[in-house]
Fold this sequence. Notes:
578 residues; mainly beta; seven-stranded mixed sheet; globular
Amino acid sequence: xxxxxxxxxxxxxxxxxxxxxxxxxxxxxxxxxxxxxxxxxxxxxxxxxxxxxxxxxxxxxxxxxxxxxxxxxxxxxxxxxxxxxxxxxxxxxxxxxxxxxxxxxxxxxxxxxxxxxxxxxxxxxxxxxxxxxxxxxxxxxxxxxxxxxxxxxxxxxxxxxxxxxxxxxxxxxxxxxxxxxxxxxxxxxxxxxxxxxxxxxxxxxxxxxxxxxxxxxxxxxxxxxxxxxxxxxxxxxxxxxxxxxxxxxxxxxxxxxxxxxxxxxxxxxxxxxxxxxxxxxxxxxxxxxxxxxxxxxxxxxxxxxxxxxxxxxxxxxxxxxxxxxxxxxxxxxxxxxxxxxxxxxxxxxxxxxxxxxxxxxxxxxxxxxxxxxxxxxxxxxxxxxxxxxxxxxxxxxxxxxxxxxxxxxxxxxxxxxxxxxxxxxxxxxxxxxxxxxxxxxxxxxxxxxxxxxxxxxxxxxxxxxxxxxxxxxxxxxxxxxxxxxxxxxxxxxxxxxxxxxxxxxxxxxxxxxxxxxxxxxxxxxxxxxxxxxxxxxxxxxxxxxxxxxxxxxxxxxxxxxxxxxxxxxxxxxxxxxx
Length: 578
């Protein structure tokens, strides 16, 4: 009897404990939530300001109100700007000067004449600044403005010029990149001993970087990356890329390097531990700039030519969203708590990271090349406000003397679902094509169409380009269109001749044709003679001379580039070697 009772009690305990564990497991499962792509924080922008570097000075922008406050004129040819706890420091290559700006007051407080043309400014991790001069000299400048020459790194002033420099994390060495004929020299400068410790000759370098702890140097040589030991400049590895690169960036942890390719358009991701390309992230447009979250889990990539922003999960390098941008983007910056992106284009686009949408646009009076955040600083403005009352937003302009026009149009798709048609039209519009929806009164079919053309041949050329970009099969129709149905697209950095209307490039054999888009209507603007050169690849809008105005750049057979620019009266084409 006792054995029976004991056995029964033991079974009861087993069943009870098992049920309890199961219940606890169910309870724990319910507590586990699926994490969102981005942690959502509340961010107060009170007291947050930004300084944008223009060709002749600085523009102060309130990031709480999203509006420009003052313009600080410094000099023509402003090149770079950095910030410390007290000042902004900016250099002018035209006037050979270094400017001190009190960013709390929004005032220039000092300017120093430099005995040479500055090409680069480096902030010392300890104190002071280093100014790199084109003739090869490196100057140290302290907080009071006292100049002292560290070293001259060039040997032949006529053949060798200083281009760029990086400083080690401890601030004891400068890695200087000089141009010697058609090659580069990388030199390690010991700041304390004031001498070049070692140097190495390399092919033409597009970009170079130091890893976060300074143990490796990576050189970008167009279609390959070379890894060097930072102590002795010995080669560790050479990594081949599938295309031509112009820029690369290390993630915050330093274990991966992202190479932004222009041809073909992609991002090659290098594993630093294995010194190899792990994979390529294909992009529709040319990747222009990338910024990472502080923990390196997310990245944000802007693309030229299609004017778009990619949201990337950087832990697995997978895109989880993309949006179109109103203008061609140039730089991208992330807010302190990573809730907002500021994208520098024709204006400054403000993007909400969590919602993945543009929430505002800041209209500034000049093109911005860099942007410096001033966090939680008390800024007292004593200068006058910028007058922006004459800046009118881009709106649809309707031709007053005609209610309808006879023309040709491109039909991309047709569907009954209006919502789907609007999404397609919106995507095409975000790529820079004047897309609209046409629906007959007696029909429920929604036709997604693009632009108006005076002749069918022009429509066929643009249609072919749209099909290649969107993987569609469009066709040409003759139509009667009311100009009010045609959207006006922004210039998006594609306004070469400065008439306020964007241009579109089409390459056809040994010719380049240029169209202007005014109120959704395409007109042939200019074309090359097509007698001398064979164009090898797609044309792109690119600011080759860094003057704020873009030119049309096309690779040409024989290793040259075609550069088409506007001289104020006419388009002209020149050819330049790579």
